[in-house]
């Protein structure tokens, strides 16, 4: 017998909107992981004898652990594909941009702090909360160009 979470009723519906939203996440995660596994199987086939088979969820094209260098390199390729200068951007910039955009959109600092994993608002306010800079506006313009506005 399958035990349902307390927020799920016998007929499968949930008690609250938040419960329904949280039940959707695992299906989305499972699908994303399934697609990732398929991509890794293709990468393993291409790598042949070079494949290291570490059973990692996120790995390089040869199955080895992902390093900070790998992430920066791949990130810069994406940035350059969006028409920006790769060396001017890092994954860390996304975090700053995320906080700035939320802040400028009126999201309460307490909510932003929780979203970025801070235990209180002090770090969020002193380090991350700043007005959108021109470089971020350039990134937003590139996103509009890519996805249409």
Automatic annotation (TrEMBL):
InterPro entries: DNA_brk_join_enz, Integrase-like_cat_sf, Integrase_catalytic, Tyrosine_recombinase_XerCD. The keyword Glycosyltransferase does not apply. The keyword Secreted does not apply. Residues 1-21 are annotated as: Disordered. Keywords: DNA recombination. Residues 1-142 form the Tyr recombinase domain. Pfam families: Phage_integrase. It comes from Nonomuraea angiospora. This is Site-specific recombinase XerD. It comes from the Bacteria.
């Amino acid at each position: 017998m399958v035990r349902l979470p307390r927020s799920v009723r016998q007929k499968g519906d949930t008690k609250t909107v938040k419960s329904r939203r949280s039940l959707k996440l695992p299906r989305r995660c499972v699908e994303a992981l399934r697609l990732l596994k398929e991509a890794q199987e293709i990468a393993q086939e291409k790598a042949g004898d070079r494949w290291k088979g570490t059973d990692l969820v996120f790995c390089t094209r040869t199955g080895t652990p992902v390093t900070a260098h790998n992430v920066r390199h791949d990130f810069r390729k994406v940035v350059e594909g969006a028409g920006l200068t790769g060396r001017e951007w890092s994954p860390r910039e996304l975090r700053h941009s995320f906080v700035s955009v939320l802040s400028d959109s009126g999201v309460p600092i307490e909510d932003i702090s929780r979203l970025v994993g801070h235990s209180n608002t002090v770090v969020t306010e002193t380090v991350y909360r700043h007005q959108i800079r021109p470089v971020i506006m350039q990134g937003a313009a590139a996103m509009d160009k890519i996805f249409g506005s």
